[in-house]
Amino acid sequence: MVDLTSSRSLDGPRGPKPKRSFSRANIFLYGTLIVVSVYYLLPLYVMVVTSLKGMPEIRTGNIFSPPLEITFQPWVKAWAQACTGINCDGLSRGFGNSVKILIPSVVLSIAIASINGYALARWRFKGSEVFFSILIVGAFIPYQTMLYPLVIILREIGLMGDLGGLVLVHTIFGMPILTLLFRNYFASIPEDLHKAARVDGAGFWSIYFRIMLPMSLPIFVVAIILQVTGIWNDFLFGVIYTKPETYPMTVQLNNIVNSVQGVKEYNVNMAATLLTGLVPLIIYFVSGKLFVRGIAAGAVKG
Amino acid sequence: MHSVEIRDLDLSFGAVEVLKGLNLNIEDGEFLVLLGSSGCGKSTLLNCIAGLLEVTDGQIFIKDRNVTWEEPSDRGIGMVFQSYALYPQMTVEGNLSFGLKNARMSRDEIAKRVARAAEILQIEPLLKRKPAALSGGQRQRVAIGRALVRDADVFLFDEPLSNLDAKLRADLRVEIKRLHQQLKNTIIYVTHDQVEALTLADRIAVMKGGQIQQLASPTEIYNRPGNRYVADFVGSPAMNFIDGMLIEDRFEMQDQVLSVAGYPFAKTPGGPATLGIRPEHIETGAAAEALPFHTDVPVEVIEPMGSDTLAWTRFADKAFRVRLDGQTDIRPGDQLKIGIDMAKASFFDAETEVRL
To answer: ipTM of this predicted complex?
Structure first.
């Protein structure tokens, strides 16, 4: 009797269930991932390869073949010599402009939106819900309807064509989504913490800087990524609210790539495009992990 | 002098009235417990006293000073929250000194007060740690310490033990009582746990629907509940209730008649009423026979709880709980002799539910 029970328990399944590495689910999963990666990485490969070739080699025709002779000349030309209109100093001017637009826009929009979000989440005032709704509706109105009125407003206040005008536009258009982001994040911080700070004699700003800010690094990273990529990649506002001397990098890139005069220098175009895309790319690589954490944290409560 | 005085307090959120014309006086050094089920307005009342909620009408006085419009930090209160609410990015020391720094107190004074609070609560070794590195009990101690350093006249506790496990809760409960005996501050303590209320309080305010049902000492609340709600809410296992009719000196139930001689009626009784008797106040065996009213009831279910045993019986055709000694040898199906002592019973008006 005793033997029987013990032999039965010895034969049966025991410990962790064995996993098959080539199960149908795994093949499907990894197969899909590989196909999708190839789909997205192939164009990038073509760009990098082409930008490292000379024009004679490009004319031979095979866009997938690696460069026989690696040359960085197209990169130098794209950065410092390519012509847009009468200026022939390459993308460097656009890069400078973009940085001058990017930094104040990101800092301003995030500073204002985080205080907005904090006030809306924790210091309810009469009509705060209405105010918030109006702000959110703003996120759904197509930009196109506001382009011309904004041109008039900027002209009236004397900022049309000025970098300051574009910074203002970016700050305003970042407000709805960023405020929503911050409000939801701050709303997820326990209310008791806010109450405790008030009992401890901390006011509006003191709670914001001493309690809330140190707890919200993830959401700031998310906001920075959203704003940096959004503003850096912006073309529409850049082309409308600036003039040739103050064009951001994206507009300049377009002018280089779409120029109709002379030979199409594919290698220079590819290098210029890669140069322009470099900033968002670096941002994603550096802060990917924090980005996911922040998105997850902000998404919990609505 | 009253330590805290609340006059005609109203609070409503839109159309929802949470507190209605509430009056409450709390003596200096008193330990007052606000007891009630969730949604009864007890935490809301505490938040009003703290100044975290704006009152709709009425006044609040702390130490004879009208604080109705004052900021929480100016009211001379310290508050402890259920979720501890420690600032996660600060050390324990930072948590304790945050309020003092906001009050622009001198460094020496801050250090002195933090050291004293840490000594009283025995958290000196934890001062340099962050809250994430503390256990639940330690966190709650730090939260109490944060109220302590403020040298407040009144401490407000908002369900401070609800997030702790049963054993820790019992330990900290005694510690809070000891702390109160040592410091002699006024404490207002919100809880839904009647054991906490009975063990800690000098007086208990049982709340329901934004109003105080009864404000009295724990003994009074337990022995002479002011109405049926209080009787039902306080005490575990809950009181037995039997509906019947009071006629002269008799109480007539389903199939039983009980003499009410010896019950201290407030006024001459008569009409439909409810008899309330606690399971632990029912006599059994020989003691039951000594009482004027005794009868045999069938036992249906037995719940042994170690120190005592709860027997579910049937009396006057209703489920009837009787608390027995833990060593009693009894089985379902047995007949149990029970006796009811009028001196320990309660009668409530069937309609108003007020004690008769």
So the answer is: 0.85
Name the fold adopted by A92-299: MetI-like fold (1.10.3720)
> How buried is residue A64: exposed, middle or buried, by Cβ count under 10 Å (0-12/13-18/19+)?
exposed
Q: How many Cα atoms sit within 13 Å of B43 on the Cβ side?
A: 13
Domain spans of chain A?
Answer: 23-71, 92-299
Q: Between vectors from CA A235 to CA A230 and to CA A237, what angle results, nearest 5°? A: 90
Average pLDDT on B236-241 reads: 90
Delineate the domains of chain B, giving CATH numbers in brackets: 2-232 (3.40.50.300), 237-349 (2.40.50.140)
At which residue do the structure tokens 């250090």 appear? B111
- CB contact, 8 Å: A213 with chain B? no
Residue A299 is predicted with a pLDDT of 46
Short-list A42, A65, A72, A70, CA closest to A275? A72
The Cα–Cα gap between A125 and A240 comes to 38
CB-based contacts of B154: which residues, under 8 Å, 6+ apart?
B3, B4, B49, B62, B75, B76, B77, B78, B185, B186, B187, B188
What is the per-residue pLDDT for B322? 92
Distances (CA, A) of B106 to A222, A288, B94, B109: 39, 44, 15, 5
Residues of A within 8 A of B74 (CB-CB) are 201
CA atoms within 13 A on the CB side of B148: 27
With CB atoms and an 8 Å threshold, state whether A195 touches B103.
Answer: no
In this structure, what token pair is assigned to residue B119?
A: 């000594």
Per-residue confidence band for A260, with pLDDT thresholds at 50, 70 and 90: low
**CB within 8 Å: B50 and A215:** no
Give the position of tokens 């575990």.
B236
Q: Which among B47, B48, B67, B73 is the top mutation candidate for probing chain A, defined by the most A β-carbons within 10 Å of its own β-carbon?
A: B73
Peptide bond into A190 cis (omega under 30): no
CA B2 vs CA B76, B99, B164: distances in Å? 14, 26, 33
